[in-house]
Amino acid sequence: MPSFVFSEAERSALEQFEGGPCAVIAPVQAFLLKNILFNTEGSNWKDISEEEQRTVLCSTLSEILESACLNKTQAFHLATLPRAKITDSSDITDSHPEPESSQPTDTPTALAAEELGFERFHSIIQKRSLRTVAELKEAVLSLYDTWKNKFGVLLFLYSVILTKGIENIKNEIEDTSEPLIDPVYGHGSQSLINLLVTGHAVSNVWDELRGIHQQASVGFLTLMESLRYCKVGAFLKSPKFPIWILGSETHLSVFFSKEMALVAPESPSEQARRVFQTFDPEDNGFIPDTLLEDVMKALDLVSEPD
């Protein structure tokens, strides 16, 4: 099971081993770079310290969890492992009294997660609820070793799902029979990527109309658009920061720049094209004349029936 591991060669890069969960790691990497490049003063993204790694990873995970919370008055939820008393590397128990001679020490079970099997892991997983953003940030920071150890990525994914709410996710996914993760190949769905990037588990990448609701902090592009399988809207193509997740047939990558001019506010003509495309989701280049009034209204232009 994967964890969040920083590369020794590129200290701001998260490493993925073998066929790991890029649908979770790539969005976290994108927000991680945003926080390093634009929210951390004086930080050298090529050579951040271990303490900076700890701080920025935990603040990034908290940020994604915040965006997933549908109603800020509701609680945040973290999927965690219980604390355990471990007498040696092969003895993991659920905090039951131990003989004094064994001299156990209280240690988070996550520190010995390598000893946990998949079924055992799911039998002891717990839900921790937090009422405020401050409590959330403190709890995520205290669990840094958990995120770095086995099951770290999975625990974070479960935390996002619990915080968003399963029913809320079902309501946002266009096809409720579509799993968030493909059961055969393990690929993350577009709904999962959108949930992590925008806080909404919508299935589409265009603007509005069961797509992306507003300009995203980091962007998303896909090779599928060049093959005309889909159309990425301006909210993902032109994010708030010049960082994009790039989807290919089988993998997700992240590329970025420090040049903010790449994501300058859209011009009036770009706004007009974006609004027009919301009424032309199939990208035909034209719309019925009955929709012209709606387009004009959306652009705050004269839209009297005459």
From TrEMBL:
Disordered as annotated region, ranges: 88-107
Broad enzyme group: hydrolase
Annotated GO biological process: protein K48-linked deubiquitination; proteolysis
GO molecular function terms noted in the UniProt entry: cysteine-type deubiquitinase activity; K48-linked deubiquitinase activity
UniProt cross-references to InterPro entries, sorted A to Z: MINDY-3/4_CD, MINY3/4
Domain Deubiquitinating enzyme MINDY-3/4 conserved stretches: 2-306
Keywords: Hydrolase, Protease, Thiol protease, Ubl conjugation pathway
Reaction catalysed by this enzyme: Thiol-dependent hydrolysis of ester, thioester, amide, peptide and isopeptide bonds formed by the C-terminal Gly of ubiquitin (a 76-residue protein attached to proteins as an intracellular targeting signal)
Known EC number: 3.4.19.12
Residue ranges with Basic and acidic residues bias: 88-99
Pfam families: MINDY-3_4_CD (PF13898)
Keyword Transmembrane helix set for record: no
Protein family according to the UniProt entry: Belongs to the MINDY deubiquitinase family. FAM188 subfamily.
Task performed by this protein: Hydrolase that can remove 'Lys-48'-linked conjugated ubiquitin from proteins.
PANTHER family to which the protein is assigned, alphabetical: UBIQUITIN CARBOXYL-TERMINAL HYDROLASE MINDY-3, UBIQUITIN CARBOXYL-TERMINAL HYDROLASE MINDY-4-RELATED
Protein name: Ubiquitin carboxyl-terminal hydrolase MINDY
